[in-house]
Amino acid sequence: MSLLLVGISHRTAPVALLDQIAAQADSLAALRKDIAVSPYVAEVMAISTCNRLEVVADVTRFHGAVTDISSRLAKHSGIHIDDLRAHLYVHFEERAVHHLFSVTAGLDSMIVGEQQILGQVRAALSDAQSAGNAGRALNELAQNALRVGKRVHTDTGIDRHGASVVTVALDEAQIALTGSTHATSAPDPRSLVVGAGAMSSLALQTLQTRGVTSVEVASRSPESSSRAAQAYGATAITMDELATAMESADLIVSATGATGVVISSDQVSEAMAQRPDRPLVVVDLALPHDTDPQIGDQPGVTRIDLASLANLPGAAASHADLIAAKTIIDGEVLTFVASQAAARVEPIVVSLRAKADLVLEAELQRLRLKQPSLSEDEIAAVEQTLRRTVSTLLHTPTVRMKQFAADPDGERYAEALHALFDLDPESVSSLSDTGREMQDALGQEGSALDPRWLR
Fold first, then answer.
1. Are residues 303 and 370 located together in one domain of the fold?
2. Are 290 and 263 in contact (CB under 8 A)?
């Protein structure tokens, strides 16, 4: 397996460029299909969110695959390859595994610890499976990434700061409405919460704790809205009543799982026309965003989103939780890489042990012919001694082979094994290919790899 990840995210590209790429997200299936026809790509899946687009592939050649994937990303995003390349990052093998595990755990998100990325990675894998683009390599990688992501959320407090994100967002909203964060200076704002998921529930709970008495909640599921309203003392409304509710709201908090805009600039403009002297604060806690970014350009309207909150101290996970999460990921990466290396080298182990068994059986047969007077019990005792000796002799070479499987010099070890034990060349081909590709990735003399891509 030679894993390759090529991507672009909020860490390497400006928002305008990400928006341009996100606008092409509807053609994600076409992008994946286009990449899949590359002669260097065996398996491929594509992960698209509001702030990243990543292609994960099992490839046969490093440089050829990087070139093909990059050019197809440029083609499908409508961005010239020279402009796009400067913002791309490339990870290979272990670094690709580490990056995907970190992304799936939410450590690379704008709001560290957010859980929506788990669903987005799961959807990317499902889409690739349905299209026949994901085989054993990507299935194992993605399933392990999802398992690791869940473990990080379960075993650490990485996502407990979700409540802090809501708190910080509502503090910012209060400042926009009143100019102060002190509860005594805050009026009882008429509030509208759109969505009934985890983040919306946190918003409803926080508003209730702060003594806000007029709260309406709307979602695509009337049953979910009713449950949320009952739990937090709010009033449930339908999405058809959203426009009317916006006319009277001082604060709108939106956190749905929708893939498109839920609240448009035109809707806000129409609502503001009915209340020209009252300010409105729109808090968008969704990934991808629920509200049109241009809403904030309208007079009297303040728009707060996760990107604006990401760098505020109250929205960050604790240092201890980050260290714990990273420690889990580091350990899981080592375990995954070791298991993949062991699987790659298994044919060699089998071939070596089969060779030893043939030699042992031949010697036992010779012993029977030369010493016909030996009883079956005596032959069995000799066989047991020989097998124990062979097992002891092969133990260290077997362990070493598994250790060397992912080594850049894997091809040299494979050739040495073939020469020393006269093994079938087919049994060492996977190890040789792995070593060769690792050498390519490291940039052999004369390589055309742009080092700035290896981030």
1. no
2. yes
- The first and second tokens of residue 244, run together, are 């009317």
Q: Is a pLDDT exceeding 80 seen at residue 441?
A: no
**Model pTM score:** 0.71
> What's the pLDDT score for residue 226?
94
| In a domain? residue 330 | no
Could you tell me if 221 and 99 lie in one domain? Answer: no
Residues 131 and 145 in one domain: yes
Distance of alpha carbon 210 from alpha carbon 205, whole angstroms: 9
Note if 390 is an active site residue: no
Considering the domain architecture, whether residues 59 and 178 belong to the same structural domain is answered as no
Contacts of 258 by beta carbon, 8 Å cutoff, 6+ apart: 220, 286, 290
Of the candidates 44, 50, 84, 218, the residue annotated as catalytic is 50
pLDDT, greater one: 319 or 98: 98
Tell me which of 119, 134, 159 is where a domain ends.
159
Residue 90's pLDDT band (cuts 50, 70, 90): very high
Q: What distance, in Å, lies between the first and last C-alpha atoms of the chain? A: 20
pLDDT on residue 288: 73
